[in-house]
Amino acid sequence: MSTPLLSSWIFWALLSAVFAAMTAIFGKIGITGINSDFATLLRTVVVLVSLALILYATRQYQSLSSISARSYLFLVLSGLATGA
User: Fold this and answer.
1) Rounded CA gap, 75 and 67, in Å?
2) Which of 32, 41, 49, 52 lies 20 to 30 Å from 58 when distance is taken between CA atoms?
3) What is the pTM of this model?
C-alpha cells in the first residue's frame, strides 16, 4: 500500500531542504550592499506579514488575552534567544 505524496514525511523533508537552500541563496544575493542586521530586519518583517496572512486565512489566530503569562514569558525568552 503506497502513501499519498502529501502525507509522506520524505516529501515534506525534501521540500524543507529545498526551501532552506533557497533561503540561503536568496539571502546571500539580497544582502549585497546592505547592512546584515538591516537585511535581517527586512526578512523578519516579510516572515511576520506572511505568517499573519496564513493565520488569518486559516482562522488559527486567537485573542492575545487568551495566552497565559507563563506562555508569554517563555515565548519572549525564546524570541530573545533567537535574536541573540
Assistant:
1) 11
2) 41
3) 0.68
Give, in order, the Cα–Cα distances in Å from 3 to each of 6, 29, 31, 36, 58.
Answer: 8, 38, 40, 43, 25
Distance CA 9, CA 3 (A): 10
Question: Is the CB of residue 18 less than 8 Å from the CB of residue 34?
Answer: no
**Furthest C-alpha separation in the chain:** 53
pLDDT tens, residue by residue, 6-32: 788 888 899 999 999 999 999 889 888
